Structures are given as structure tokens and as C-alpha cells.
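job 3f2a | input accepted
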Amino acid sequence: RRAAAVAPAAVRTEELAKYLNSAATLRRSIDAFRADIERIRALAREIETLSQEVHETGVRRDQILRERQSRFMELGAGAFSLFRKLSDGAAYRPMFEELLKLDKEVEDRTAELNELQTQEQSRGFFDKIKVKAKKVMVRGEMNRLDRAKTGAYEHAGAKIADTDFGRHAEGALRELFDAIHDRKEAADALAQENEQRLQQIDTHRQELMRLEAKERPDERVRDLERRIEGLMKELEVIFCWTGQLFLEPAPVHRSPQQN
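job 3f2a | predicted structure (259 res):
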């Protein structure tokens, strides 16, 4: 081993120099494989860490978005009430079209119910039974419209939350607009963080591909370890031959006069 560390140019025979060159080449290959193993392991750990962070950040973002969405119905109801009072709210009308339609239907059903109640008072016994049946149907329809308005408030809130409608609001409604806006900014910031992490993961995977370890890093590491083991065996053989040649006496070259 000590002999193999000698520079090839400093030795006495060409054969020994070849062994020393071979030993140096094998050492460089072993060092390169070891460096690849360390890099593969480091990249795999980094990808695992980043993937876990992506998951955890995604969970936090989803929670923020759920909290934001849970306020849409309240926002939609408050914004619709304010919209109906605005003199210059025409630009926002498309966002409340569903609610305006439902309000009109509620008004029509209410008028119909009032008409039926009036009729009921002036009808005979059997006619009253028919009127009562119609009233039950109308009330059922009004209950359906109320449930539909709940969903429409949420839809309107989701639409209006991303507009400048909040500038018309005051007090609690304005605070609600600001809170929903803040949650959106927080969710967007988390999404940006995850985008950066995903880009890092992609970069690491590209490097693993270069190292032939993209799909199965552990298997690639084991393959490199087997190759190092094989090279180490070759190096041990070279050490034996190098030591033997290094310890042999140098050949004596005699001149013709000495002979």
C-alpha cells in the first residue's frame, strides 16, 4: 500500500509504473463512486424532507381555505344586502343574479300564499280543503327557495370576495372582507412556498437521473457499493504485485569492459 502511493515517475521499472498507474486509476474510480453514493443519499434525504414539507404546507393551506370558504355565506348575505342599497352597484349585478332571481321567486310565492289565504277565508268547507293543500305546496316551494338562497349566498360570497366590493362596506362587513382577503393572501403565500419546493424536488430528481438513481436511489447505492467492493479487490491484488516489484533489487546493467 505504501509503495502504491509512490508517484509512477519515481520508480525504477516500467512494469512497476504500470501497476502504480492502475492503482491510482482504481482509487479515483472508488473515490468517484463514494462521492456519488454520498450525493445520492443527500439528494434522497432532501427530496424526502421537501416532500414532507409540501404535504404539511398543503394541509395548512387547505385548512386556511376551508376557514375562508366557511365565511362565504355570511359574506354573500351581507354583501347582497348592501348591494340592494347601492345606487351605483350595477357593475356587481352579475354576481348577485342568482340571488335576485331567487328573491323574485320568493316574492311571487309570498304573493301567491297571501292570495290563497284570502281565498281560504271566503270559501266553503270543501273548497277550503283544496286551498289548504295548495298552501302546503306553496310553503314547501318557499322552503326550497330558502335552502337555495343559502347556497346562492355562498356562491355570491365566493365571487364577491375577490373584487373591490369591500370598499363600499363598513363596520363588521368590512372586517369580514378584510379577514377573507387576508386568508387568501396567506393561502397564496403557502402555495408559492410549495411551488418553490416542487421546483427544488424536480432539480434534485434531474440530478438523480444524471446519477442513474432517479427511480430507485437505494438500489443504485447498492450497485455502486458492489462496484466499489469489486474495485477494492482489484486494488488489493495490485498492492500485492506492487509490493513485490518494489522490494525486488534493481537490475544490474554491466558494461562490456566489466564483462
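job 3f2a | Residues 12 and 250 are 7 Å apart (CA to CA).
job 3f2a | closed
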